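Limitations
The structure tokens in this dataset are predictions for the assembled complex, not deposited experimental models. Users should treat interface geometry with appropriate caution, especially where small molecules or nucleic acid strands are included. An illustrative entry is reproduced here so readers can see what is and is not provided.
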Amino acid sequence: MSIATVFEIVLAALVLGLGIWTIVVRETFSATVGFVAYGLLVALIWVRLDAVDVALTEAAIGGGLGGVLLLGAAARLRDADLMASKTPGKVIRASAAALSVLTAAALADAVLLLPDPAPTLAPPAVANAWATGLSNPVTNVLMAFRAMDTMLEKVVLMLAIVGVWSLAPDSAWGGRPGPRHQADPNGVLAFLARLLPPVGIVVGIYIFWTGADHPGGAFQGGAILASMWLLTIIAGLADTAPVSRRWLRFILVAGPCLFLVVGLVGLLFGAAFLSYPLALAKPLILGIEVAMILTIAATLALLLAGAPERSAKP
Amino acid sequence: MSFVRDMITIAAVSAGAFFFLAGTVGLLRFPDALTRLHALTKADNLGLGLVVLGLLPQAGGLRDGLKLVSIWLLGLLAGATVSQLIARAARHGESTR
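Predicted assembly:
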């Protein structure tokens, strides 16, 4: 047994243990911390499977932004003390357990009964990379071969933000999301929020740019940009923008709209919906991705900032 | 030449792993938040630093080396900031208790 195999077994056992602990532990805060560690370890598993693109996304969303979102939820739950006052009845708990067991069994069944070798479209995806001029097969699949899925995913992000905003009370509609954060302007957090964003913005754009040929892309880069924006907001250096601002809404729809326009132009003048002319494939993909990274960064940051709480007018 | 490089890597990464182990033991065994933080930051700063130092001879070129060093610097920045924030929260919690 090689060292790599031992490492993989230990990693898998750790992830399983952490997953169980996250479910069993009673405090929501502990469960959240467990979930963040779980996300980072799952990212390591993706690296072991040579799926670095997925690993980056898992670390950014599962470990990073998802963790922040859950921490906020845990803090609110602690305030409301919902967990202590209301435990679900036996029937609900039994049916939830039954549903979970069924889902787990179906997933296990699907994985264990895969034919060997598993059906794959990877060789044709790699063989047709010349058509776009990008050499990262994941970006090729996301932006060209299965661009439809990526476009719909951006629409889902937009629907999510509409869902969060719809929770706003009438008086705060169009106002600023989340509370105004106060922190010592000469403190450590404010210092970090001044020092880190220039570095983070460069790293975010680099991850986006390198996605053409190496692991990376608009989603991972956008998540980093979003976290830099959130850092300045949490440190009290900046405030969230009122959701009624036109530029903000423009950024939120820029990605899916440009995607849709390019797709329709392909339908009218080219072979099919979202078909790129060969000579223009790379510039078109790059253009869509530039719009998408802005949309993703703004959407993720606003999803974490929450529903509008404060009226835009002082 | 590659033998010397490998020896440097093995020595430095082992030393780094030792600091991570010691830091973890300290995190589990030390009595209060501040001493636990002390143990944790040793693992972050020295452990990660030594692992990066050990990986430098294996880096493909200057670019990869610089990337490794910047990972360490970012880790230092994050570790220092977070430990300050946690220490402040711990002291605040003690004074209000």
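Some entries come with short summary sentences. For this one: Chain B has one domain: 2-96.
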